[in-house]
Design brief:
The chain has 393 residues and is α/β, with parallel strands linked by helices. It has 2 domains: 235 residues, Aspartate Aminotransferase, domain 2, CATH 3.40.640.10; 85 residues. 38% of the residues lie in helices and 10% in strands. The protein contains 14 helices and 11 strands. The strands form 3 sheets. The chain has a 4-stranded mixed beta sheet with strand order 1-8-7-6, with helices on both faces. Strand 4, helix 6 and strand 5 form a beta-alpha-beta unit. The site of pyridoxal-5'-phosphate has 14 residues, from helix 3 and helix 4.
Length: 393
């Protein structure tokens, strides 16, 4: 008997993240403004307008937002402005290992030696009490708590940490745009919060970022740190970089703001569709999505490494993109293998167990259903949850 090879048709691949930024037509009016002003960078009119509009959205005074070339540049600017470069008596910087590698890269760019701490297994956050009791805290120049996946980092505890230890704090709130606009009174204040407007983040300008602080003097120092140490004249008065946002990126940012409520709604819709489909399989407890994290992420929380491997394998087999967003933690990147730490069991676990699923503002419901369906064979015993019965007396 001749066996005919039947070629299995592979489904079209679904990328893990497919950003969608404003189309050319929506940029055009802003680009024409650049043509007329002939100002292309250096905190020009569009970058200033963007800072004002984001401040307004976050219910803050207009000078609270400093725009930057990227989230990483914004981190460097904020660290230089509040802690300065590493000094001999304070050469260390504390960073959680459960983060994107940019957090560590930024403190190193400011001359600090990275010290990695573990995070809490439920909040995914660095605990201020744990940082305060770090054995070499008197040699630490700056702590950079991270808002992982845009989970909120509350200002109050870190203000108290700073008062108690005298150590400066810069919050890496790279994906916090949505959390901060939902609760600015809790998440924004004098401690600078850095955001990334990279294409992959919910609110995006392509490349870009910002620092948000209600301390106006600090905001000016950040502007200076991002502009060669210049403020009113061309005299460099502090450690600095060129980390300014260009007018072209500001144009994208303004057009993105014009369509922001629509985009935010679309992204939130993706998260609720995931929740609905996981619910139908009885896996709702495994899904982590908006509003508990930024809507540019949809995470599936595995319980064991074997499960995570099975999930990844099944997604790959079905051409579904997936990603461990923070790799296996900063300490597992080749370059940071030697960075000292006191054990990182939670990061070791979390980083490998939180599998990033596909997100796009225009990801169709049937695609989301397909992604969820390809996980169902791994969980044959999951039961869809029934609504609790209402007791009638
Ligand atoms: C995205 C991200 C950054 C880096 O932002 P860029 O704009 O890409 O420089 C830093 N930290 C965290 C936690 C991020 O998610």
């Amino acid at each position: 008997m001749i066996r005919r090879h039947v070629k299995k048709r592979l489904p079209a691949p679904t990328p893990v993240l497919r950003p969608l930024l404003p189309p050319a037509e929506r940029l055009l009016p802003y680009l024409r403004l650049i043509d007329s002003t002939r100002i292309y960078s250096n905190f020009g009119p569009l970058a200033r307008e963007l800072g004002r509009r984001i401040s307004e959205l976050l219910s803050l005074p207009p000078e609270s937002v400093v725009t930057a070339a990227s989230g990483t540049a914004a981190l460097i600017g904020a660290i230089l402005a509040c802690a300065g470069r590493a000094r001999e008596e304070r050469p260390l910087a504390i960073v959680p290992s459960f983060t994107f590698v940019a957090t560590a890269a930024a403190v190193e760019a400011c001359g600090y030696e990275v010290r990695l701490l573990d995070v809490d297994s439920e909040s995914f956050l660095l605990d201020p009490a744990r940082a305060a009791s770090y054995e070499a805290i008197d040699r630490v120049g700056v702590v950079v708590p991270v808002a992982p996946f845009g989970r909120p980092v509350v200002q109050k505890a870190w203000i108290e940490f700073r008062q108690k230890t005298g150590v400066e704090v810069v919050i890496d709130g790279a994906a916090c745009f949505e959390a901060a606009s939902a609760a600015p009174e809790l998440l924004l204040g004098e401690i600078p919060v850095v955001m990334s407007f990279h294409a992959t983040k919910s609110y995006a300008t392509g490349e870009g970022g910002g620092v948000i602080t209600t301390n106006v003097d600090l905001a000016y120092r950040i502007v200076q740190a991002l502009n060669f140490g210049f403020l009113d004249d061309r005299d460099c008065r502090m450690a600095s970089i060129n980390g300014k946002m260009s007018e072209y990126h500001a144009a994208v940012g303004l057009a993105e703001l014009d369509g922001w409520s629509e985009k935010a709604r679309a992204l939130a819709g993706v998260s609720s569709a995931y929740r609905r489909h996981f619910n139908a399989l009885g896996l709702q407890n495994r899904f982590v999505g908006s509003p508990s994290i930024a809507s540019c992420y949809a995470l599936f929380r595995c319980e064991t490494l074997e499960e995570a491997e099975a999930v990844a394998a099944s997604l790959s087999e079905n051409s579904v993109g997936h990603r461990l967003w923070y790799g296996r933690g900063v300490h597992n990147h080749s370059y940071y293998r030697g960075a000292p730490h006191e054990g990182l069991p939670v990061t070791e676990d979390l980083a490998q167990l939180l599998v990033g699923l596909p997100v796009a503002p225009d990801l169709e419901d049937y695609k989301i259903s397909e992604v969820v369906q390809c996980l169902s064979p791994i969980f044959p015993n999951a039961k869809p949850q029934r609504l609790p019965r209402i007791a009638i007396r």
